[in-house]
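subagent[fold] <- orchestrator: predict structure for attached chain, return tokens only, no commentary.
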Amino acid sequence: MKKILSGLVLATTALSIHAEEGPNTLKPSHQFPTNQEAIKAYNVDNADQAILSPITVTASAAVLDELLSPKSVYIYSKEDIKKSGANTLLDFFKYNTSLQIDASAGNTLTPKISMRGFGLGDGFQAINIIVDGVSINSVDNVPQQLGSVSLQSIEKIEVLNSSGSVLYGDNSAAGTIIIQTNSSFDREKFFGSLKAGGGTYANRIADVRLGSVTEVHGIKLLADAQFSYSGSDGKKQSFANDSDHFPGGQRDANEVLNGKATWGFKVGDFEAISSYRRHESTTFYAPVLFDADFINNADMDGTKGNRTIVRDEDISTSLKYKINESFNL
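subagent[fold] -> orchestrator:
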């Protein structure tokens, strides 16, 4: 017994000696008493030793430096989104994050999404997706309409791979995704962008944005308008012989239109912003084939199909008063 105890003491002593820090070592940020001291030590006093600048995490009860956050949080900036080359939010999530995501029966408007192994079947019900402070989760167990969010308008994405039920309700057991679009007053007087492209199977995209931030007698005025369109045609033709309804045949296809207008004002530390959003999408599903027909001719046209049309619009208003660097109302 004495030998075993002695061995434990020696092992502990060796571990303590090995873990001892040098006099010039910059300790990890989580060991500082406060966020302000950690940020000052890394960005001011020891800027030459700091590798990363602090990233603010807002998807929690308190605003934290990412280095100080105890949760698994992934932050994607506007620059990250731009470098990804993705044209839709579905593409960005699928190829640039740890999320499992796929089109729901070919419908890219409401893709199925899974986090932390909850599964593509109904895992989307355990994920709360919040855009500019408003949840886009459906009340009728339909996947979130990610296709209604223009990728070009996104300023920041936060993915929390942990239960957020206390903050965001029981539909965030798997995690929470916070999406922030750019509605800041700190922009150029006039700003805008134009993007268009195309590909095989008539894939096409178009994105237009125009806006301005002007100041009149100390009051900043914001006006921002954006429009996006995406569509594609599939491989299989349906209603090939029904010239009365679909001359020349109708392929499986989808089209998505998004429009958003934002306006607001800022006086001192108080700001008010209102937005009007409209979304329209049309998805045409080609018919399924029986096993015998598929084996005989997998490319044969069908005689039936299914069309889904979605239209929705909403108006939102937000009021904000900045108390200090850490607190807002």
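orchestrator: received. Logging for downstream: Helices lie at 2-18, 35-45, 78-84, 89-96, 165-168, 291-296. Residues 190-321 form one domain.
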